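Researcher: We're reviewing a set of sequences before deciding which ones to prioritize for further study. For each one, I'd like a predicted 3D structure that I can look through quickly. This is Small ribosomal subunit protein uS17. If possible, include the structure in token form so it fits the rest of the review sheet.
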Amino acid sequence: MENIGIDVKKPERTCNDPKCPFHGNLRIHGQIIVGTVVSTKMNGSIVLKRESRRLIKKYERYETKISKFHAHLPGCIDVRPGDRVKIAECRKLAKTISFVVVEKVN
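Model: Here's the predicted structure for Small ribosomal subunit protein uS17, in token form for your review sheet.
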């Protein structure tokens, strides 16, 4: 499958993963999130961290909020902890996984 519906580079490697949006039959829709990989210890999945800052006017300070997402990692994309990646929403793949990694961002 060539076009997955968003503007990302197709991975150079191929895989036989049916849950891959590029080489399998997984459709993506909804949110697209960019964040930092925290952990790759799960088999075929990653934990992603997204930080956002907001101003608290009363104290004239910024507050940092951290959100963690679990995402499926296809075999054709190689990531390590600390890398920035783009994930896209898909159908629920496991109890806590409803996103899939689509691109490694520099």
